[in-house]
Every structure is written in C-alpha cells, then in structure tokens.
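Quick log. Single chain, no ligands specified.
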Amino acid sequence: MGGATAIIAEQPQQLKAYLLQTLSEPDATELELRLLSDSQFGDTFDAMVDVIIDQYLDDELSPEDRERAEYYFFKSSIRREELNFAASIKVLTAEFLS
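-> predicted structure:
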C-alpha cells in the first residue's frame, strides 16, 4: 500500500474536519484549492456532507462534533434545508416500513 491509499483513506476525515471547522488554516486552504480543481474530490465532499447529516440525525456524532455541526455546519440555510429533507425522508421511511 502506497501513499495514495493513505491519502484516499484520510480524505473523509479531512473533509469532515473541514466541514466541522477543525482543520488547520493551511490544510483548509489546500482542501479548498483542490475542491476548485478536482471535480471527483467535489463529489467526495458532497458525499461527506450527506454522511454528516445522516450521522447527526442518527445521533452518531460525538458531543463535540454535534455541537460543531450545530454551530458551523448547519449555519447555512441550504444545509438546514438538507437536514430537514433528510429528517422527513427518515420519518416517511420508518412509517412505510412499520
């Protein structure tokens, strides 16, 4: 296993740290530049947004990450709409399956 595997394995945690505002300034700048130049990385970023929303709804975030999600991640009205939509889907799915 080479360095590329380590970078791929590291990406989700780095993206999560960026989205929850725990990534260092230099690393955040590097990540932002990559988002502008790598569409596949942008897809991974979008997937991590969905993962954080799901983890939030399923109460799978640590207390610290949950607080950071509430303060930083859901500050955006678009993310709050995504959260509300995902919560509605979970309720409808639970009702359908019961």
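DSSP finds five helices and no strands in the chain.
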